[in-house]
Design goal:
It is built from three helices and no strands. The model has no long low-confidence stretch (mean pLDDT 78). The longest helix is centred in the middle third of the chain and has 53 residues. The chain is an all-alpha fold.
Length: 135
Amino acid sequence: MSAISAIAARGLTIANNQRRALRGKGGRGEVTFEKADSGNRQKAAVLTDALTRARREASRRATEAARDELMANAQRALELKRDSKRAKRPANLPRPNQGMRAKARTRIDPIGAAGEAGRVTKFVAVAQAKKDSRG
């Protein structure tokens, strides 16, 4: 029999004897109920005080943990706010000392041969000159 079950069995025996004494039946440990119960009341008071202290300490620790978490969140928010106000460079901008680099072409190639584009440009220039000379 383990120690805990022995203590529980002893507690049950004492409780049964006290109940028998309360009903007025004889038996082992004949003690008036008030005397027997005074120890139980004292134990209950001690346990109640201990539980109150334990709950108070648990509440204090929970409050402290919540305060620490709040402070950590506030620090993180402040860092995020400061980071958002700093100038940001796009990643594709050239950096110092990298030299000149050709930009990627963004225009769509003209339809037709390159000579065709030159011919059209010359045609527009001649037409504009005729218009200007008219006056």
